[in-house]
Amino acid sequence: MGSNYPEGFPEDGEGPVRQVCLRPFAIDRDPVTNRQFSEFVKSTGYRTEAEVYGWSFVFWMQIPSSRFHDLVEDTVAATPWWCKVPGAKWDAPEGLGSDISARQDHPVIHVSWNDALSFAQWHGKRLPTEAEWEYAARGGLEQKLYPWGDALCPDGQHLCNIWQGQFPNQDTAEDGFSGTCPVDAFPANGYGIRSITGNTWEWCSDWFVTIYSLQARIENPTGPPSGTSRVMKGGSFLCHKSYCNRYRVAARTCNTPDSAASNIGFRCAL
Hints:
By secondary structure, the protein is largely without helices or strands. It has one domain: paralog of FGE (formylglycine-generating enzyme) (Alpha-Beta Complex), CATH 3.90.1580.10. The chain has helices at 34-44, 49-53, 68-71, 113-122, 130-138, and strands at residues 55-59, 74-75, 82-86, 165-166, 170-171, 201-207, 230-233, 253-255, 264-265. The radius of gyration is 18 Å and the shape is globular. The two termini are 20 Å apart.
């Protein structure tokens, strides 16, 4: 696992390339969908952290221009395309007036790490470790950039939902989608795993660290014992080589366990 890719992000701790050994595990074919999360909420009455806080982050182009000033409370100074939208939550992804009726087979979004863990435990599952996630994402290939090989668009074919155009102002949607897409929109990898690159970031169980320790566990690694942020893998529909070239299998980032946004989802393992 890992990468020494020259165009990667050394500060993310992608490298060095290293060999690990994993015991057998199972992982969901698809990220958890709105339909599945709705069943969880109906059965348990669960409230996501975005609902408790009363807001979540929404990418600016997902907000109708006619309602932008009514819906947006604030923006992030360093990344002004992220908007604080009161009422944005898993079943109202763009805030008040939006819904998921036409997106039942899209990945659920606006779910924090804590929300994802609660869903997984309700199903008798857990979140995958970063090593498990990366093994599954590689689909049987070794040290390839993507789940299908080294070419992002082999023979001109789009194989994942990422950004085309000029980020963050123009998305040409050449892959057929602007925003999330159905989990079965693109072909599965060699292990039958779908939508593991692009579409939405996926939470892993590990705490995030950027310095690889030579004393780290080689067998069934689970990450450091503590930290402030959890690992996210896979990139999202907002990733573009000019800004966030993190839709590669080895790429990684992190967020605090209570964070949520319109491009973060998850899948389960056991």
